[in-house]
Amino acid sequence: MIKSTLLNGITRALRNIGNKTTERIWRLGAGARLFFLALIYSGESYKRFHLIIREVYATGVMSLLIIIVSAFFVGMVLALQGYNILQKYGSSDAIGVFVSLTLVRELGPVVTALLFAGRAGTAITAEIGLMKTTEQLSAMEMMAVSPIARVIAPRFWAGVITMPILAALFSMVGVLGGYLVAVPIIGVDDGAFWSQMQANVDERLDIVDGLLKSLAFGVVCTMIALFQGYDAPPTAEGVSHATTRTVVISSLAVLALDFVLTAFMLSA
Amino acid sequence: MERTTIDLWVGIFVALGIAALLGLAMKVGNLTSTKIGETYSVIAAFENIGGLKRNAPVKSAGVVVGRVHNIIFNTKRYEAEVKIDIDKRYSFPTDTFANIYTSGLLGEQYVGLEAGGDEDVLKDGDKIIQTQSAVVLEKMISQFLFSKASEAEASSDDKSTNVSPADSAVGAKQVQGTSTELGDAPF
Amino acid sequence: MANNIVEIDNLSFGYKGRLLHKGINMVFPRGKVVAIMGGSGSGKTTLLRLIGGQIKPNSGEVRVDGDVVHQQDRDGIFRLRRKMGMLFQHGALFTDLSVFENVAFPMRELTDLPDSMIRDLVLMKLNAVGLRGAHTLMPAELSGGMVRRVALARAIALDPCMIMYDEPFAGLDPVSLGVVCGLIRSLNDALGATSIIVSHDVKETFLIADYVYFVADGVVAAEGTPHDLMQSIQPFVHQFVHGDKDGPVPFHYPAGNYQSELLTPTLAQ
């Protein structure tokens, strides 16, 4: 009797795992399919470039404030913390290097991607989820207009264009924030701040790699947001769950991908 | 919203992004200082290059005059051959002295050139004869300890200034390790 | 040119083994207003989706203008859909576009007409539904009846030869109801199109339909002109038309014996 209930429990648990796994893999496949469809239909959306511009406005321009303000604070905190550590080794002049390298290599692309997922990603998911709920996507299909060409692809490219721009802005504003704390407040030498930075930040290794990272994050974050919206059950609850999933999955994906990319870039 | 307003904002947005990128490249990065026009390359062999990397600056009197092009390990002579690109505007005598220095205690390493007094100048493909390796911290410390120990022994036993055979062997090796073609160690 | 624009032949469709339609036959003659009626969940809307090619039948076929819908590739289906206009249950207006842009949407996407011509066409369509003055408004600023009318203007934007209405009367106040009702009939006659109305509102539907199909239990339970159906003595039709509470469509969801269920201490799983 006990044996059989135990056996039942184990079977149920295993079946549960199997079920979850197949579901995850199925969704991954569906997401990849949407990605390729978006690429295939990109030609059609480039013919209507104003759609992409509108989405760049929605995702990029609307995210400017949060990106600039956060970058400023992140840069200032970096300068404070960096000074605290570096002065112990008598190299507080290296604070510019510390701030700029941290921002350009890591924090710029990563924090921008996380903020993007929270600000623009959720908006994309909710918008597409609601378009689905209110049958707007069906209506488009019935009008012989592909929703992937009209809705998905422009948003995808807008995200891919927006992310590197936001990341570059984040890094630049962060460096300025760091400068503001390091030079006028702490009293690090102005020339040393910039010259040490320039001697140690390499435009190919650091800046271009940072850009490549943010480009990859742009593809991943936008695609996750789009897929979650497109795949959401057409109910209020379904859309709200999808929005949450966008933030969670995007954040995890960005951090994991950052590790992989960093490993590749440092070994290259 | 009107399409023209959106276009304007997106234009501002993209312009800001490009400005930030340029700012990063010019102000934060070293795009301006790597802009070396015509260069000629010379080779300097070092016994130990420490943490010298590709693209590290080459300075003379503190001015960046070139970049490290690449670093090859010579398997015949067991030393590092560093290829240096120097700006055509600067010419150096053939007996120029190449050192590997560190900028600050934690800074990156760079190649420093000290001009000699020769009439002839270095040409493309020439080799810098006189080099001095990077300072390796561990060796510096062990040498310091070794010299302290020998001082102590010398003072305690003034009959014989010789150190024990084992110590002297190690010491000789250490000295040789940091020595260059000039043959004298800095410590 | 065949006399019927849409023919449904022995159509079966279902999800996961449960059949929603079990061999449906319908014809929709050109120029007529034909209604599909039935209770909630009887698969009326699904029929429209089958006609539009958004889903594929399990067996049988739907022919639109002589072409079998589910045998078309993507381009073929898109070509067929250009002959169709569809009004969704809640209008399905694009919430990020103004009324004008909503109506202009099919023209901009599917034609290469110059802007000035699109402008004139849109204003004409909006005038036909009486909302020319509202063309700058956003969908959120419209009432339910106005949304339905804008959606109607959008559905007829490219002068389709058939228009499908999914529950056009649901959730409208009496005035809007009358307006929409009259519009469907007058637009159909003015455009020379065929209209397919899916609805469960007997009064309005009977007012404008030329022919009515009743769908129940996955088959066509009754058909005929509104006049015939009003007189019908078929119990199902009678219940539906007159809105009787109980009849062939039971009030109770199938359940066990009431008395014994109350007396047993636990709910039967």
Structure description:
The complex is a heterotrimer of chains A (about 270), B (about 190) and C (about 270). Chain A is mainly alpha-helical. Chain A has ten helices and no strands. Chain A has helices spanning about 1-40, 40-45, 50-60, 65-85, 95-135, 135-140, 145-185, 190-200, 205-230, 235-265. The longest helix of chain A is centred in the middle third of the chain and has 40 residues, at about 145-185. Chain B is about 35% helix and about 25% strand. In chain B, helix 3 (about 135-155) packs antiparallel against helix 4 (about 165-180). Mean pLDDT of chain B is about 75; it is low at about 165-185. Chain C is built from ten helices and ten strands. The chains are: A mainly alpha (about 270), B alpha/beta (about 190), C alpha/beta (about 270). At the A-B interface, helix 3, helix 7, helix 8 and helix 9 of A face helix 1 and helix 2 of B.
Write down the secondary-structure element order of chain B.
HHEEEEEEEEHH
The termini of chain C sit apart by 57 Å
The tally of beta strands of chain C, per DSSP, is 10
* Count of alpha and pi helical runs of chain C: 10
Provide the descriptors you would attach to this structure in a database record.
heterotrimer; A: 268 residues; 10 helices; B: 187 residues; alpha/beta; 27% strand; disordered C terminus
Structure described in brief:
Helices cover 88% and strands 0% of the residues of chain A. Chain A has helices spanning 2-40, 42-47, 49-59, 64-86, 95-133, 136-142, 147-186, 190-200, 203-231, 236-267.
List the helices and strands and how they pair.
The complex is a heterotrimer of chains A (268), B (187) and C (269).
Chain A: H1 2-40, H2 42-47, H3 49-59, H4 64-86, H5 95-133, H6 136-142, H7 147-186, H8 190-200, H9 203-231, H10 236-267
Helix pairs in contact in A: 1-7, 3-7, 4-5, 4-7, 5-7, 5-8, 5-9, 5-10, 7-9, 9-10
Chain B: H1 3-28, H2 31-34, E1 39-46, E2 57-60, E3 63-74, E4 79-87, E5 97-102, E6 109-114, E7 127-128, E8 130-132, H3 137-156, H4 165-178
Parallel strand pairs in B: 1-7, 2-6, 5-8
Antiparallel strand pairs in B: 1-4, 2-3, 3-4, 5-6
Chain C: E1 4-15, E2 18-29, E3 33-38, H1 44-51, E4 59-64, E5 67-68, H2 74-81, E6 84-87, H3 99-110, H4 115-128, H5 144-155, E7 162-166, H6 174-191, E8 194-199, H7 202-208, E9 211-216, E10 219-224, H8 226-231, H9 235-242, H10 258-263
Parallel strand pairs in C: 3-8, 3-9, 6-7, 7-8
Antiparallel strand pairs in C: 1-2, 1-4, 4-5, 9-10
Helix pairs in contact in C: 3-4, 3-5, 4-5, 5-6, 6-7
